[in-house]
Here is the input.
Amino acid sequence: MFAIVKNRVTLILLILLVILLSLGITYRPLDYSRGTPTEEPQLQPKPQPPKEVPQPQPPKLEQPPKLEQPKPQPPQPPKEAPQPPKVAPQPQSPKPADPPPLPRVSELYSLNPVRKAPETITTTVFMFRGDFSSPYYDIFALHKRATRYCDNDTTIAGCDVKLPRNYRWGNLSDKLVDALEHMCKSPNKTDFYVKADDDLIMSDSKLDEVIRVMAATDCQVGGGIMATRTFYWPLGQVYIFKRAILEQFCQKFPITRRLHSSEDISFGLILDSSDPNMFCHLNKPANHWHIDYQDQRVKIKYFTQHNE
Here is the structure.
């Protein structure tokens, strides 16, 4: 009977065990070593990330309506201005022909004398000097004989006449006009006038000879006569003219200055003559030299020609 009871108890325990297993309850022995049974740890819920709070959105700005850009137009050809009525071309007058070249003038020594040269001939030799001139000009007789015309502010010695202004190479025509005006106002007129550069090399005796020959002819202006323009003009190294030519100049005053940058061309421009009988050539080097001269004993050389 005890065995039966024992079997029944065992059966009941098995039934309870099955029930407990079906209910998910597991057997866990109590831990009496620490005096109190261990408690089953509570499962903590997993932390959830905080929900994002929606941020307020700024109100959308309305876009202004797009303006349509005008399409580029192709360039239009310019409108032609109304043309004036065409005028029939007028017949052009024929262009005046260039004047014929002036004939070459005769050499002084080839002219036939028309009169006897006077025993006494008065002569004015004039010369333009500047600060560029050599201080030893007086070693040449022609320089000592000349009336020396200088600039107004010159500081060199040996000036006979100081003109009213100062001059350079580009306005020597003004110096010529002022010198001629001074001669016109002078009460002492002479038969001949000789313009000589300060680098002219000519002896006194040769100059007197040329003047005696010229006095017996109708030649009014002697020198290196040029025929490159509509008038004759003498090279400025030396030219000789008679008193009648000076009187023509005197009648033309006041003369406009700066006629030409060159003094010798201005002389011909003032005289304005194309008559070849008024002029005669003075041969070079038969009777004069310019800038340099040399013979068997003498050598002369000018190094500075102009007052640049």
The chain has a mean pLDDT of 81.
